[in-house]
Design brief:
By secondary structure, this protein is an alpha/beta fold. Helix content is 54%, strand content 14%. Helix 1 packs across helix 8 and helix 5 crosses helix 6. It is globular.
């Protein structure tokens, strides 16, 4: 079965690491903002929506880009939202980017605001609304590695992998 996983996430949750682990274990590619923007620059796609629909014609993981909404009518799409406690996110960003606490906090708040505005501008919906996703994963509660394993077990149980 063609499995498409969309992953929306708050900044600093570790969602990219979850996506990388799923990609490795499921042997499917991950497409993120950088990849999508690069493809739009180098090829003649009409727009981001067209490109995301093309990418979703094969099994893959798409990080952000309102993919959950763009692909909402496709039965093979599983929409995930990854969150974590703000303090955990700040400390993860501090470690990843070697930033002091206040700079990491400011970066987190600016990034979350930008993502929220982007999502609303493109979908008219509230970013992070539980009604827009099949599953919410909290990396503060479960840990990044466990979140990937939870998803793998679920996909095995419903027999999509």
């Amino acid at each position: 079965m063609n499995l498409v996983i969309t992953m929306s996430r708050r900044f600093g949750t570790g969602a990219s690491a979850i996506a990388a682990e799923l990609s490795r274990k499921l042997e499917i590619p991950v497409y993120d903002k950088a990849y999508i923007e690069h493809e739009l620059e180098d090829h003649s796609y009409g727009d981001e929506t067209e490109l995301i629909k093309k990418l979703a014609s094969h099994s893959c993981i798409i990080l952000g880009r309102c993919a959950s909404e763009i692909l909402r009518d496709q039965g093979n799409v599983f929409n995930i939202y990854v969150c974590a406690d703000k303090e955990d996110r700040i400390h993860r960003i501090m470690g990843q980017k070697s930033l002091p606490y206040e700079e990491a906090k400011t970066l987190l708040e600016e990034n979350d605001k930008a993502r929220s505005e982007y999502y609303y501008r493109h979908t008219g919906k509230v970013w992070g609304d539980v009604n827009n996703y099949h599953m919410i994963l909290d990396t503060s509660q479960f840990g990044i590695e466990n979140c990937a394993n939870i998803l793998l077990k679920y996909f095995e149980r419903i027999e999509v992998i």
